[in-house]
């Protein structure tokens, strides 16, 4: 049921946003030399690797960490806009149609992070398809700028974001259904608007409460305080 829903919605999104996709592609090409799409190796269902596509938002050969820090100088101007509006994720609806991703599911991590930094409980998030959005993704999107504001964004990510993000997604996976996914999709759209307005909102309180089974509740204080 969820898989059929994902295919139907993904096809509709790609069709309806085709003019926007063309505009974004042209804007990227004008703004920064290089390819329009950025392929990223990610850990998928069962831990197997797949290639996830995003609209490129960074200069080519800019190097650095897989983790994007606050005010990262590698991002070009148009890239900042498409990242803020989450337009860089649109190509991932193709990954959904291919069966590599779901619309709602844990955001896929780089294989190196999985191999080097996953605690045993974190591997349970690999039992479902990774997704374009999720409670963990909303938490990251809403508060990542504050939590990654450090000289070493990768260390800040591992210390402040990886565990709470995965705990939220693991908690959600235990109650997921088509209706709850529709709510998460709507919540994501609201979170994007609120972030653009300077008033970020976090994931639903029920997922924050359930996530405390794996992560100390203090990790979510920034979301509760908002």
Set out the fold topology.
Layout: H1 2-16, H2 18-31, E1 37-43, E2 49-55, H3 77-84, H4 92-98, E3 102-104, H5 111-117, E4 131-133, H6 135-147, H7 153-160, H8 162-173, H9 178-196, H10 205-211, H11 221-225
Parallel strand pairs: 3-4
Antiparallel strand pairs: 1-2
Structure explained in plain terms:
The longest helix has 19 residues. By secondary structure, the chain is mainly alpha-helical. Strand 3, helix 5 and strand 4 form a beta-alpha-beta unit. The radius of gyration is 17 Å and the shape is globular. It contains eleven helices and four strands; from the N terminus they run H-H-E-E-H-H-E-H-E-H-H-H-H-H-H. Helix 1 packs antiparallel against helix 4, helix 2 runs antiparallel to helix 3 and helix 6 packs parallel to helix 9. It has a two-stranded antiparallel sheet with strand order 1-2. A two-stranded parallel ribbon has the order 3-4.
Features:
two-stranded antiparallel ribbon; globular; mainly alpha
